[in-house]
Amino acid sequence: MTPSSVALNLALSFAGLAALCLAMDRHHRAILSGAPSRLRAQALRWTGWAGILASFAAAVVTSDWNFGPVQWLGSLTGAALLLVGLVSYRPGWIRPAAFLALPLAAAAALLA
Fold first, then answer.
1. Which of 47, 63, 66, 105 would staple 11 via disulfide (CB 3.0–4.6 Å)?
2. Rg (Cα) of the chain, in Å, rounded?
């Protein structure tokens, strides 16, 4: 477990969970001021699950099957706690934070 693999997993988990959050009507209205269309909500759901799956794959590749799933669950929990805090207190920060997580994940992938 290296710091770059943890950063990679955390960034991918956060981006995936943020997309799933934005797929919900209530959070989409609060963050982007309007209900999502059916197509947009479906695309956000697929993107969110793809991000979570990519996070799991990155955890297994960087930490092997011995510790990878444990690291993935930890990063998923940390990303969820961060997202819950942002939804509760600063919902407007979720979109920029999710877009910032993607280049961070790319940089961490190069180092991992």
1. 105
2. 14
